[in-house]
Hints:
Layout: E1 47-52, E2 55-58, H1 61-69, E3 75-76, H2 90-95, E4 105-107, H3 108-124, H4 129-139, H5 146-157, H6 204-211, H7 226-232, E5 241-242, E6 248-249, E7 257-262, E8 280-285, E9 294-296, H8 298-307, E10 311-315, E11 318-319, H9 322-332, H10 336-348, E12 351-355, E13 363-367, E14 377-384, H11 398-410, E15 414-421, E16 441-447, H12 452-461
Parallel strand pairs: 1-10, 4-7, 14-15
Antiparallel strand pairs: 1-2, 2-9, 3-9, 5-6, 7-8, 10-11, 12-13, 13-14, 15-16
Helix pairs in contact: 3-4, 8-9, 8-10
Amino acid sequence: MSSWLGRMAEAVFHAPKRKRKVYEHYESPLPLPFGQDQGPGRGCTLYRAEMMSNNIIVRDAEDIKQLYGKGYFGKGILSRSRPNFTVSDPELVAKWKDMRTNLPIITSKKYQRGVQWAAELLRRQGQEESAVHSILQDYTKPLEHPYLQRYQEAQVQGELNSEVDPNMEDPIGKEELPVVNGDVGESGDTEDLSQPCACPQEGSRQDAVTANGSAGLPEDTAPLTPAQLSHHEDSIPQRGSQLEDGRCTGLLSADKYVLVEDVASDGTVGEAAPSKETKRLLCRRNPFRTFEYLQLSLEEAFFLVYALGCLNVYYEKEPLTVLRLWSTFTAVQPSFRTTYMAYHYFRSKGWVPKVGLKYGTDLLLYRKGPPFYHASYSVIIELVDDRFEGSLRRPFSWKSLAALSRVSVNVSKELMLCYLIKPSTMTDQEMESPECMKRMRVQEVILSRWVSSRERSDQEEL
Length: 462
């Protein structure tokens, strides 16, 4: 990293600070397309994302795994960073660890809360109270679970050892479970519950948008207006979608079915437990499911589309072109061009940039990824001309700059000022295309705090 303060005090590069405990394996990042034989449609995996409420959302579980695992793009909307949200109760998972099942294990109280949420959604849809009660009573009946039944029989007979029979596989995911006391059909009153709780049909949201007066996508050269973006979705969906082949996507935790710790002999949820020994697990349908999605920042999404060519961003079932994304993202976030140029630059240098909002900066730079190293730099980005003049995004005073520098030092990071230098001959029309980046230059300045007492002690040692 270079510094304008080189004459006064040479900027010293500090090695990234590795985290003490690392619990995951490092995967090779997504490959860069080189040559004519690689790229979209030529052997390169194409991932799918959707634009909703000015957010870029990835639903498919395998796409989420690949994008986050190979480059740490995006974050889970329900998790701290890695998209690994689960409804399981950690204490119950540890208690029933011999079960070795992929199904979430929750308490009866938590399940009852989900039933109440589902009932409230049904009431909002105009269902009568008697219909709500009938639907939920039929929907939440216990299900036959062959693995669970064999496990409980072995437990009663005292034949269960520390190692479970490997032939006793969990059938969930391979076949549907029949309902005890009557099956729930694919159509009928019980399936109405899938509207608020399970996977709604894709296109229902888009149809509603069209009915509200949407004229569809504008011409390719025009950006999507904020009004068009806002009426498409009021918030990030929490219920998932369904593709044309009927396959639910966006589901990282298989919580269509859950195991509920209960003690009732007749399968009624929430009965008082006479003793701990009588507690058992019952398999039930989950009436209120939550889905984990991967949320990409605008810079991350554009990098995957433009630089790597491995992502398609859809809006109302139509993929957006590179030029369309450039103009649309600029309309959504006026500073997008500036922040993306810096993001592209640091990504190309091997860093993993993340949003630096929590430290008052534009970007945080990680080596390899957040699970392995702490962020090394907090970056402020500015766009200037050849004479380093222009309307600064963040006009600092000495007081605010000193405060930001102190914050960065206190969290063991260096403060970097990244200047994107635009040629004086570049017109606004040229900035309408991402090809303008080929004429941009980058100047980095590492800002360090000068301590007079430390400077005197260093001179005395010499």
